[in-house]
Amino acid sequence: MPSNRENVGTKLQRIAEKARSDPKCKFTSLFHLMDEELLWECFEGLRKDAASGIDKVTKEEYGKDLAANLSTLVGRLHKMSYIPQPVRRVYIPKPGSTKQRPLGIPALEDKLVQAGLEKILEAIYEADFIEDSYGFRPERGCHDALRSLSQEVEGGSINYIVEADIKGFFDNVQHDWMMEFLGHRIADKRVLRYVKRFLTAGVLEDGLLVATEKGTPQGGIISPILANIYLHYSLDLWFTRSFARTCDGRARLIRYADDFVACFRRESDATRFRAELDERLGKFGLEVAPEKTKIIEFGPLAELKTRRQGGKPETFDFLGLTHFCSRTQDRKRFRMKRVTSRKKFRAKLRGLKEWLKASRTLPTPVLMKFVVAKLRGHYAYYGVTDNSAGIARFAHEARKLLFKWLNRRGKRGCMSWEKFKLLLAKYPLPAPRIRVNLFISK
Fold first, then answer.
1. CA 327, CA 304: separation in Å to the nearest integer?
2. Distances (CA, A) of 215 to 166, 177, 219
3. How far is 148 from 261, CA to CA, in rounded Å?
4. What share of the chain is helix, strand, coil (3-state, %, to 5)?
């Protein structure tokens, strides 16, 4: 173990302070940070049970002679002789769908190097990212984005929402633009060359090497920070520094990774944004899915207007939740409320069903432990203000699925409701309850 491990954070903090104090600074000397000290920390952060890439090397195997392995790796890095390997592409079931999701698994050393580069890039760009960018950033998450959206809409100055969906974002990042964006802040050619090498490392599928002429490394540790940098320059800065300043009324964009909504006071601003969005994203090789992108009238005025007409305002989905116009319990004030979206509800339920079907032969204590963990995870994310009905419904359906597949472990009818109740008394399921208050800031 390196004797000066505690200095990793200090070095990165110094870079972060410089980036914050000088927004125009181009960092010319960064690659020296890619040493045994930094990579040791990156190694400790890797999952123990992560699948191996085409090198077939696991964390346990690499760690048996870690000091020597890291020393050799650092030597190759600084000689510029380190060449990233193609990612191993596998396909995993997509919950709620018959489709499969492609997943890229990098080689172990590629994970380490990507993790090191990610730490360096994060130290620089955290100072640049806009306040309303929430995805893949320290001390930020989905619930923070939802909280900001609630505060914005319930503030009373928003009348229109543009719900947008970028089609296949991670597969369509243009490498030339990515390198140009990085060049705004980084002048260390070694850092830039290694990022480019990872972008073009390729994918190995069924023994065939497929070149990657666009997109970010699938499953790569570095992909989230690269995605944020790409959208920072292609979308965030354009909206905050250019578009919003020409709006007649309030305008705000709230983004989590490639999922975002834009809020407007004036319909004319919302309409213009929707029209200009295609051109802006198209410049950088991106496009929105027309069928998933729409302008809706939403907010206090929309709720009042449709209520007088005997109807209901349109809804929109963001981060797995359907947002709708409502009122406080005493009916005196406007409230934006939310419930688990139908698409996500069905997907999560189908995912649980498929898992129970495949795992029903596990010993009962083990099976119930996993079910409890899955339900707690669901409530931790979807248990937000106003979504009591959504998580209660999920709990009800989950219980029914659990009973069904426990009943198929032996002869049909072997598990009666009476036996099932006794089982739940011994292995109780967590109660669905609200875990996240969107009215209280962290």
1. 10
2. 14, 11, 12
3. 11
4. 50, 15, 35
Compute, in degrees rounded to 10, the torsion defined by CA atoms 16, 21, 22, 23.
Answer: 80
Q: Record the pTM.
A: 0.92
Torsional sign, CA 105, 109, 112, 114: negative
- Average per-residue pLDDT in the chain? 93
Nearest-angstrom CA–CA distance, 164 and 316? 10
| Type of residue at 58 | T
Measure the CA–CA gap between 186 and 27, rounded to whole angstroms. Answer: 5
Distance, in Å, from the CA atom of 98 to the CA atom of 104, rounded to the nearest integer, reads 20
Closest CA to 426 of 375, 369, 356, 378: 369
Contact 410, 361 (CB under 8 A): no
For helices 108-125 and 66-78, the axis angle rounded to 10 degrees is: 60
| Tokens of residue 332, six digits | 């005196």
Instruction: Quote the CA–CA distance of 16 and 272 in Å, as a whole number.
Output: 36
Cβ–Cβ < 8 Å for 346, 96: yes
Question: Does residue 1 surpass a pLDDT of 70?
Answer: no
Residue 206 pLDDT class (50, 70, 90 cuts): confident
In this predicted structure, what is the pLDDT of residue 353? 95
pLDDT tens by residue, 323-362: 999 999 888 899 999 999 999 999 999 999 999 999 999 9
Tell me the C-alpha distance between 195 and 226, whole Å.
9
38/115 Cα distance (integer angstroms) = 9
Where in 170-308 does DSSP place strands (E)? Answer: 203-205, 208-210, 251-256, 259-264, 294-297
Contact 87/220 with Cβ under 8 angstroms? yes
Q: What is the mean pLDDT of residues 243-272?
A: 97
Task: Give pLDDT, residue 50.
Answer: 86
How far is the CA of 68 from the CAs of 96, 108, 118, in angstroms?
45, 15, 23
Tokens for 58, please give them: 């696991």
Instruction: Give which of 40, 228, 237 is closest to 121, Cα–Cα.
Output: 228
Cα–Cα distance for residue pair 168/227, rounded to 1 Å:
12
Is 224 in a helix, a strand, or coil?
A: helix
Reported as type and span, the H/E element at residue 105 is: strand 100-105
